[in-house]
Amino acid sequence: MGLFRGRGILHPRYFRHAVPSLETDYVALIEIARDAVNADPVWDEDAEQWVSQPLPLLWRGMARLQPNKDWRARNRTWAGEETGEHAVRVQLNLYRNLLVPKDEWPAPLVNVKHGDFVTVIRNQNDPSLELYQFVVRNSMGASDSWHRTLLCDVPLGSQQ
């Protein structure tokens, strides 16, 4: 006789109770955009100049950001210049996409990929996070996808 008598280690109602608890720490409004690799600039007749096309927006919603403690900021040489990078964990619920009307939640799962951009739109606890461009390095989920943790690289010298 096993301790759980055929039941898994997670109670069937675990996710229903755990998700709202974790989401109380989602205090940053973020957007995830996909780099338009082949998007050529377009001519703006009014401004009489070439302008970049906006990045396609994939996801918008609340998230939690935390520096990755086991990956300290590192200096790297890139294109002959010294740069600093740090890794940050971005935790979010991909099913709560504010680009989808709330009456259609849970929203379809968004496939976040390596190289996608994360931008902090608003974070009242630390507005300095709004200055950085986060680049997704690892977006792999888990078998129990009740929330997603993205590992992002942050070039420390590239404030917007």
Radius of gyration: 19 Å
Strand order of the largest sheet: 1-4-6-9-8-7
Arithmetic mean pLDDT: 82
Query: How many DSSP E strands?
Result: 9
Structural class: mainly beta
Per CATH, which architecture? Beta Barrel
**How far is the first residue's CA from the last residue's CA?**
60 Å
What fraction, in percent, of the residue positions are helical?
under 10%
Quick overview of this protein structure:
The protein has 160 residues and is mostly beta strands. It is built from 1 helix and 9 strands. The radius of gyration is 19 Å and the shape is globular.
Task: Describe this entry's structure for a reader.
- The protein has 160 residues and is mainly beta.
- It has a single domain (14-36, 53-155), classed as Thrombin, subunit H.
- The chain contains one helix and nine strands.
- The chain has a six-stranded antiparallel beta barrel with strand order 1-4-6-9-8-7. A two-stranded antiparallel ribbon has the order 2-3.
- It is globular.
- The chain starts with 13 loop residues before the first helix and ends in a 5-residue tail after the last strand.
- The model has no long low-confidence stretch (mean pLDDT 82).
Describe the protein's topology:
Layout: H1 14-23, E1 28-33, E2 42-44, E3 49-51, E4 57-67, E5 74-78, E6 81-92, E7 117-122, E8 133-138, E9 148-155
Antiparallel strand pairs: 1-4, 1-7, 2-3, 4-6, 5-6, 6-9, 7-8, 8-9
Name a few traits of the molecule.
Thrombin, subunit H, six-stranded antiparallel β-barrel, two-stranded antiparallel ribbon, mainly beta, 160 residues, 38% strand
